[in-house]
Amino acid sequence: MPDILKKKHAACRRGSIMKHLKEFVKSVPDYRRIDKGNYKYKLEDILLLVILGRLGKCITRPDIIRFGERNLKRFRSLGILLDGVPSEPTLCRIFKHIDDEAMSERMSEFTATFHAELVGFAGDILCVDGKAMRGTVLENGRNPDIVSAYSLEGGVTLATDMCEEKSNEITSVPKLLDKVDVSRCIVTADAMSFQKAIIDKIREKGSDFLIELKANQRTLRYGIEDNVELAEPVDVYSEGPFLEHGRIETRVCRIFRGNDLITDREKWNGNLTVIEIRTATERKSDGQKSSERRFYVSSFHGSARRLGTIARMHWAIESMHWDLDRNLRQDFIRGKSARSARNLDTIQRMVLAILSIWKGKRKKLSDKAKGTAELIGELSMNFTAMIHMLAQK
Asked: For the chain, how long is the longest CA-to-CA vector?
């Protein structure tokens, strides 16, 4: 194991979540003139209040203020909020002016601290996708779009990049990949990321990829569709039927050598694997049947079972997006500033990371099995339990 990884791993074991959380809030640059004394509340205290408040199921700024007032004595016993709880305009102003890129980078440092411990050193699956913040509408009528790299094994967001228009996600993904160490990882993404520049960047970073193929690469997609009918699969894996979400599903994964199917092999630079997944679904309620066929292209060579599993695992980042909306109510919170929207997103991803890190550190299977909503529900009722959870090493 490289010395630098040993040091990071040892440092992670020595510190509690609260210790590293305090380091995070102290590291966020303060935009105010603190050398002139022109402030009342420490930025680190405000950030810690907001993170703990959202960890305690607070959604709006008034909710966070009431949470701080209700637990003010306990906060002060920890050396936090010695001058009281900031007002709602103060919270609004702070998050409108904090450097959103800097705070996102500090979040990446926080999650990277625990990533090696949660994942180990055998590699990871890194899911890349964008999410529109529908609660924030900019002057041009669009929603800010935040592209993120999510660790499947660790359950944490490793980095984010923001673009205001969905089409800019294509240019944001290479910048995002430069922010994280993707070596020894398999990067999964949806069809929008099937671009030569992105694939070249993934290879340049020493990683493999598995990306869905749709009609945005028209020649490649339709060429594979035509050729796959006459080609012989290298491996086939079937699973099901099984009942899931009120539907009976059967899946068949077939893999092919890309050299046999891809005509423009020089453009995509290398020997690739083509994955075809056919899904047959029957709704249990009314017996209505449907079928779907999806194609993926990968630089990773594995069995049909392994590649089919990796393709499905990309939905982990969609599940995380669902947590942001359903449990943390991201799209419910209204805003007009792209900067404050991204700062909100960073804080909420910190909350999800804290819960994943805590579950990853726990030995009891019952603790590891708890969902986000269940954990937030427990913590919202007990401030002491929240602090105790964060203090555990």
From this structure: 75
